[in-house]
Amino acid sequence: LSGRGSQIGTKGGKDTRPLGDKVFQQSQVRKILDFLRKTNYSNESLTSKHFPLSSKEFVCIFNFLYSFMDPRTDSVLPLTRFDEEVLKLLKTLHYPGNLSRSHFVTMGSLHSWPTVLGSLSFMCDMASIYSQKLFPNIIALGFPNRDESGFTTDRESKEKIQYEHHLNCWHEFNSGADEFPEQLKALKENLMENNGVDVERLECLGQQKTALEQELDRLEGRGGREVELLEQKQILQSDLAKMTDYLQKIETHIDEKQEERSLKTSELGEVFERLEGTNAKVMDMKSNFELRKVSHLEVERSSALVGERKRQVETARKEVEEMEKEVWQKEIQVSRGREGMDTLAKQINSLAMQEELKTQSGETICLHVETFQGGRGEGTTANKSMRTELSEMTRDSRTLTRNNEREMQRVVTASEQFKEELAMRKKEVASKEGEVARVTEESTKVKEQIDREELLYNRQFEDINDQLYQLKSQDRVNMEMKQRELVIAKDRLEKLQLKTKEERVTGQEFLQKVADRTVSYMEECTGYRDEAAKAVFDAATARVEMIRKAGIEMQGKVAQALKETKRN
After folding, report:
1. CA quadruple 6, 9, 15, 17: dihedral, nearest 10
2. What are the angstrom distances between the C-alpha of 491 and each of 84, 496, 507?
3. Which runs of E-coded beta strand occur in 7-46?
4. Crossing angle for the helix pair 113-129 and 22-38, nearest 10 degrees?
5. Is 229:357 a contact under the CB 8 Å cutoff?
6. What is the pLDDT of residue 385?
7. Contact (CB, 8 A) for 313 and 271
8. Residue 230 in contact with residue 397, Cβ under 8 Å?
């Protein structure tokens, strides 16, 4: 050995313990033995007579004490050439005393043992702190009850509740369970209780949500009738235009008939005036006839004139009656047309109220039926302006419909592209599943090979022990040589076990890398799916959801395979 290696704690050492005092050494030995017995150390026959310890026993006790600080490590120090490694470990643990390689090389000497005992006592104190103070309170220390601002609160942290939930699920998983309904229910109750959730308020909000979803479904179903309503609107507008033209023609015809009627009325008045003049003449003639002042020829002429006038009056009366009948029929036709106009206006007004159609001034569209007073129509100007606005709204609706059709075509195209990309992703997922299966198979083979090698090495070790026992029974056998062979065989066995452990760690790291790559790939696929799902219909969303579930199941299988590998 070269002399002296680098020491620990040479600068600024703070170890004030009386390591050279015999009484202090005995108290430290008793403390170490009490801790070893309390924690079920494997060598139960160890007593104070075995101190100073041999290098092998020191390594075993050091590894046992260090396992309390790092349970993942069983043997942190090798059985041989451990002096460099123990210095590094004590340095990482901030050991306050002075140590060098020579202390551990000459461990059994009187000048080295107090320093080595001090390091072992330090490890015992550290193991006591970890086992008695840190481990029982690890959850409380790891998840302090603090709010977002860092102040202490009476509520448990969300991370602590989730951690306890994962522990409960882990125990159930080790028992063979694949689903955890009771644990999920308990997690929900704990979170709600911890956050002070009002269950009644939550149920009320759930009912409101259900009602709003139903209202949304109703409105979406109503929106699906847009094309049908637009077609109906166009038909009604066409009927309205036709009816408006027909009514204009009816109005023109009625105006003409009214003028004819006024002419006939004036003519009839003139006829009545002439009839009155004739009656006056007849009365005069009758008075003259009674007075015998009229000749016989004048009487006959007057009688002929009276008969002719009577026939003219009868003809005029028949014409007036026919004209009145015709006016009555026209009034009936106008009344029927008005009823049709009322029905059509009501349909258009109800449709405008359902669709919330408004004019440019913000008023709801409402058609008014023209009223006729004195042979003239009122409200024609309002309907003409309404017709102009309806025509503009029709053009806007047609433009919106064409834009919706173009948007629908783009969505369909995007859906087709997403289906193609989804098929490619499915193929990639299938290839990744094959790769995971291959890695799992290789891991199983490596595990079987490690088991076979360990079994072989155990058999070899048993054979060597049997040979050693046989050799001990022979007095003439050189025990010293056999012990050397045994040490060499043990060293070889330890090297092989270390090699096996390294191979196992390498295999676990390889599986972990494969799992991480698989998880990152699944997350990338999930990102693509979330981006594409915004532009497709519900059917595409359902398929993407199925792919996500498949990815989660695959991730669970990979995690389960890793856990089984770690467990083995």
Report:
1. -10
2. 19, 9, 24
3. none
4. 40
5. no
6. 64
7. yes
8. yes
User: Residue 373: what pLDDT?
Assistant: 46
Single-letter residue type at 161: I
| Residue 8: half-sphere exposure toward Cβ, Cα within 13 Å | 25
CA gap 555, 550 in Å, rounded: 9
CA 270 to chain centre: 93
Between the two ends of the chain, the Cα-to-Cα distance in Å is 41
Residue 501 CA: distances (Å) to CA of 15, 267, 365, 494: 37, 131, 85, 10
Q: Which DSSP category does 284 fall into?
A: H
- 371's enclosing H/E stretch is strand 371-373
DSSP letter, residue 317: H
| CA–CA dist 316, 276 (Å, integer) | 15
Distance between CA 557 and CA 515 in Å, rounded?
10
Residue 493: phi and psi, rounded to 5, are: -65, -40
Other beta carbons less than 10 A from residue 95's beta carbon? 21
Measured CA to CA, the distance from residue 139 to residue 159 in angstroms comes to 10
Q: Is residue 297 within 8 Å of 235, Cβ to Cβ?
A: no
Tokens 């090979």 identify what position?
449
Instruction: Write down the pLDDT at residue 334.
Output: 80
Return the amino acid letter for 294: V
Radius of gyration of the chain (CA): 56
Identify the residue whose tokens are 């979330």: 530
DSSP classification of residue 131: I
Q: Are 10 and 98 in contact (CB under 8 A)?
A: yes
- Long-range contacts of residues 423-428, Cβ cutoff 8 Å, at least 24 apart: 425/525, 425/528, 425/529, 425/547, 426/547, 428/521, 428/525
Structure tokens at 131: 């086992």
What is the token pair recorded at 169? 């699920």
- How far apart are alpha carbons 45 and 63 in whole angstroms? 18
Spans of the chain below 70 pLDDT: 1-14, 136-156, 221-226, 289-296, 299, 355-387, 415, 469, 471-480, 482, 529, 532-537, 539-541, 543-544, 551, 568
Cα dihedral 104, 110, 115, 116, rounded to 10, equals 40
The rounded distance, in Å, linking the Cα atoms of 429 and 427 is: 5
Helix/strand/coil percentages in the chain, nearest 5: 75, 0, 20
CA distances from 407 to 153, 178, 223, 226, 414 (A): 53, 45, 16, 15, 10
**d(Cα 562, Cα 173) in Å, to the nearest integer?**
14
- Cα-to-chain-centroid distance, residue 323: 80
Looking at this protein, which amino acid is placed at residue 231? Answer: E
**Residue 212, CB half-sphere, CA atoms under 13 Å: how many?**
6
